[in-house]
Amino acid sequence: MPDFIRSLPLTGTTVVTVLAAVGVGCLLVLVAAQRPRRDRRTVGRLLWTALVAVAVPAAVTAVAVAALDLTLVEIPVTAVAAGVLLTAALILTGTAVVTRRSRAWWTVFPSVGAVLTTVLLVNAGYGMFPDIGSLHPEPSYREVAADELPPAVADAVPVDHWHAPTTLPEYGTLTTLPVPAPSSGFHARDAHVYLPPAWSASPRPQLPVLVLMGGIPGSPEQWISRGRATELAHDYQRKHGGLSPIIAVVDATGSTWGDPVCTDSPTAKVRTFLSRDVPDWLLSRFNADPDQSRWTIGGYSYGGLCALQVVANAPDTYGGFLDFSGDRRPTDEHRKHDSTVRDFFDGSEQAYRDANPEHLLHTRSDDGRYSRLHGWFIAGHRDRPAVDALHALSSAAERAGVDVSTATPRGGHDFGLWRDALRTTFPDVVRWG
């Protein structure tokens, strides 16, 4: 496929404007396909169509917010508009077929157009596929089964002393495998690990690590498929002799909808998993850089706050963090403080405060424990709760001595924002390593 076609955008204001015009055009054609009467019945039918077309998506949105504990900012306006378009198109197509029968066969064309426009509007809202090329991405890695991956070696060398050999593989390696959890016992889903071409060399360089986590609902593979993390690493290693950070996408929830609050509790020891089990595994299995101050941990939404929780509670485990659209403080799936304290901190407000990153940054920085940390906070300008959290937490982190950067680009609470956020911060991740 030619590059100019692959680069055609599927998101953005211009794309949404064009799609909206196409959608309205399809509806006008379907309105014209109704039985050619201007009586009260026809006008009434069109008014009911408009009412139902608005009411159905509004009801679905209300149910989703209530049942899935979402906020309105997590449902893009374009997705709701797509629902209105689809509902109206289906009703108008149905009435045209019923009232005009055989003469309405051609309405299949505007109907199909409306359906395709609906799909594209939803994609534009959530930013799942940013351009034509992302529908069929070019390879940025070769996938290798875990049992075919070379073992750890005893002669790995510091990356600063490593020299690239004459030949290296063109692509890095992506593998999927479980993370041993001897310290936490946490039952995590398999991790996805990207290893740059340099990792396959002999001697092997000890590479820094970027640990990434997802949100709720979510799965580790989303940082690969939607976040395009491996593409960033691939582009970087091509220009730097096969070198790039190891990227380990790990599970911090235990299931698609799980919410263990990223702490150690009677439910699960997630913080121990991320601060001990994951680093120990990366060191022993992948010969990662033993200087963990050169590592970064990050994530979006739940994963963003979780990254901050880990470094605030255990600042010696990672040197950097990325908090994309994270909340201000830990809460359970119901977003209730009382049930969070009851279920995850044995009812102790003091235990909750001692694990809350904002409290720790305010009260535990006198000994300089946070002064070597680097961090990024990024939230979409429409994501008001995340922007408020960004201001509060970045201010607390800065006062605690953390080297802080912030950004509130245009966007909401979706992968379009998080993908761009990772692209923005990746140069710093490399620099910190």
Overview of the molecule:
With 433 residues, the chain is α/β, with parallel strands linked by helices. The protein has two domains: 3-132, no CATH class; 138-432, Rossmann fold (3-Layer(aba) Sandwich), CATH 3.40.50. It is built from 14 helices and eleven strands. The strands form two sheets. The protein has a nine-stranded mixed β-sheet with strand order 1-3-4-7-6-8-9-10-11, with helices on both faces. Strand 10 (374-378), helix 13 and strand 11 (403-407) form a beta-alpha-beta unit.
Largest sheet: 9 strands, mixed
Q: Kindly state the mean pLDDT as a whole number?
A: 93
Order of helices and strands: HHHHHEEEEEEHHEHEHEHHHEHEH
> In angstroms, what is the radius of gyration?
25 Å
* Broad CATH class of the largest domain: Alpha Beta
> With helices defined by DSSP (H or I, 4 residues minimum), what is the helix count?
14
CATH topology of the largest domain: Rossmann fold
CATH architecture of the largest domain: 3-Layer(aba) Sandwich
Number of domains: 2
What coarse outline follows from CA principal-axis ratios?
A: globular
Low-confidence stretches: none
